[in-house]
Design goal:
CATH topology of the largest domain in chain A: Jelly Rolls
CATH superfamily of the largest domain in chain A: Jelly Rolls
Number of domains of chain A: 2
Mean pLDDT of chain A: 82
Helix content of chain A: 40-55%
Largest sheet of chain A: 4 strands, antiparallel
Oligomer: homodimer
Shape of chain A: elongated
Distance between the termini of chain A: 42 Å
Order of helices and strands of chain A: HHEEEEEEEEHHHEHHEEH
Strand content of chain A: 25-35%
Largest interface: A-B, 30 and 31 residues
Amino acid sequence: MQEEAKYWYLHDHQLFSVLSREENRALCLIPNFKTVKKNEIIYFSHDDEQRLYTIKSGTLKIVSVDAEGNETVKEILRSGDLFGQYTFDEVDENEDEYAIAISEKVVICSFKINDFENIVKSNPQLAIRYTKLVGFKLKRITNNYTNLMFKDVRTRFVLFLKDWVMKEGKGQTKDIVVKNYLTHSDIAGLICSTRQTVTMLFNELKNAGLIDYTRSEIIVKDVHQLA
Amino acid sequence: MQEEAKYWYLHDHQLFSVLSREENRALCLIPNFKTVKKNEIIYFSHDDEQRLYTIKSGTLKIVSVDAEGNETVKEILRSGDLFGQYTFDEVDENEDEYAIAISEKVVICSFKINDFENIVKSNPQLAIRYTKLVGFKLKRITNNYTNLMFKDVRTRFVLFLKDWVMKEGKGQTKDIVVKNYLTHSDIAGLICSTRQTVTMLFNELKNAGLIDYTRSEIIVKDVHQLA
DNA sequence: ACAAATAGGTAAGTTAGCTGACAATTCGTG
DNA sequence: CACGAATTGTCAGCTAACTTACCTATTTGT
């Protein structure tokens, strides 16, 4: 990517649009663009220096590994999303997390949180944007979990599917074709259920004529009918 | 409270200790101290002007009311905690929330979001503290929800009890006596379970000799043994 | 092209914890 | 103190969804 283009991407980003060109440079954002290919892994959990990442383009998933080595997909992130040590906190030694690229090409941009902190010092406006972003994330997470807690598996599955398909479908509501990059186990992890139950629910929707799917893609005839 | 005392409270607060006397004044913090008695309600959800609140002393709980009018305790907050529109977000019209004093006397201090935002803009140190605080809150909530999802009710109950008792016990780990201001239903709401199950679990711990409790207080012999 | 690995499909057995119903206790207030 | 309301205690179903187990289809690597 050209320097110019990089600058303008950052300029458009909701978080960084308040930074001057000099501040961008100070943050070392521009030299830290990185392109990763599908299935490439970005470790950010036990990295030597804590970093904050933002996604320029593409899709990736956050996978967490527990003490027994079980891997669970925790989140699906798309362009504009933030991940990494966004709390400025020490990393929790108990859990291990990494990000893995789902789409063919994912462009991310990272910087050290210390640098970020320094920029905040000279540009407090960034702090407000940042808290708004964190607040947004908080809201989304709360929402997600509220669904998880109070609804049954079927409802959770349908809500997840709806959300997924709508995000990928960029606003469309009918005849959306989504590349099926998640396994049944992945989905089970995301909605806190089991592989078998997810399989069952997929087939249920298929038999009801609401969706059509193969291993490589999912076709939803009408998003609104899912509910 | 005397003006002086108010100033020093703010001066000690992790968030506001970086403010000069002039900034404090600009924030209009000092005129906005308020004392509420037990069971008094602080509405902050549909207030005409958005406010951020911090607790000087006492304990209160955040209660949310859903569309059907069911009330659920969402959070227990203590001195130093923040509540209200701390993410600078718009209020969600769909849900109604209020805070209600649990302890005999709760002193809170509030100010308008806009004023706060302005101070943040001109005080980088405050900006950093604030981003850390909000980030920390995000982490805590995420953690809470993760527990809710992946652990069984017994574990959730014990984790909750441990956390509660340790917060009230101010660091002590043995023979902590906690004023029991939560009903079994309240606790059930917090750990996403039912009244009956909470009753059962309380009695289980009691019979196991790990705790002792009446309607008015809970005595935990050794916090570490709970796990 | 084949074996090995991974993903999807189906079913019977099991269980944590929810529901509902009701009794016992405690609290609050005239 | 006495009555009604709120809270706590107990128990017998019930059921959604998890386990375990096994089999088939598809993908991947060499």
